[in-house]
Design brief:
The chain is of the alpha/beta class. The chain has two domains: about 45-85 and about 305-340, no CATH class; about 90-300, Rossmann fold (3-Layer(aba) Sandwich), CATH 3.40.50.410. Helices cover about 30% and strands about 25% of the residues. It has helices at about 15-30, 105-120, 145-155, 165-175, 195-205, 225-235, 255-275, 290-300; strands spanning about 45-55, 70-75, 75-80, 80-85, 90-100, 125-135, 135-145, 185-190, 240-245, 280-285, 305-310, 320-330, 335, 340.
Length: about 350
Amino acid sequence: MTLSNHVPVLVHVRPVTKIFLIGVLIMLATTGALAQQDDVITTDTSLVQLNVGVVDKQGRSITNLSANDFSVFEDGVRRPILHFEPTEAPFSLIMLLDMSGSTITFRQQIQMSAVRFLDALTPDDRVAVVAFNGKGVKSLIGFTQDRGRVAYAISIATGAGETMLYDGLKFSLRELAHEGKRRKAIVVLTDGLDTQVRNSDRSALSQAAEGQEATAIKAETSSTLISVLNDADRQGVTIFPLALPSGDPKRLPMPDPRITAMYSAARTRLQLLADRTGGHLHEIRRLDDLSRLYAQVAADLRTLYTIAYQNPNPSVRDGKWREIRVEVARGELVASTKPGYYAR
């Protein structure tokens, strides 16, 4: 089950202007200095890591549980919990920004909202910024707790051209792999219209009969998407897509069946990225909603527990689906996390 209801948290964002100014000064004064790196801890890939949200019957988040309140099942068999972190434990977080041509007209709004997001994080969260555009993927700053430097990195994000969304996600997952056993998440702001994946979708549509366009693209079978999901599974990374209105199939000015099919497939894949990793897709209806939705993601992060258990057959990589279920001892509470993983 995907967690769909969280209690909204109001976040005060007064320090934004100061963050920008401080960030500029610090970046100029520390040219060549990258984010401080913690000692890297080797991740045990046989452990399955879950980020778990818990709500009551009214949809209110419950954040005061302990490991003893949870039971984890893989394919119906209960597994012992080997590691547990409460909701207040810090995250290593990548802010992944779409700097392709489709975001040029509202670039400043994107950057201001992204900077405000920093105010909603805890001091111990480590943040990195990655941007993608027609020239590829670029790390703007590595993991750091220095909010001023992160704000500056966001402010200089630029670009145009094609959308390299999935290259950006793969790059981000490689960066997160160096963060050891910390809790991990990617917040990606994009319209979802990856250029290379759209080329594959066009190929599928070229073979579709007239009137069959809506079912011609099987969004969930994309090898690019599957590769990203597998990498996220191995690390226990939760993905929170913020879907820009420019990629909304319901807002197309001329609803051509083929274009609508490609936009719908792109939006479906964003939903799958969230559902399969235990995150939540936030659809941006109006650009004015950007700051509020970034704040909501920050609130979402603060409601997640992290649970790790031993894969019962770590040497078996048969590609089959392993179903995950998490239960809470208090019957009136509902837990949600990713539904499972493929043993690859």
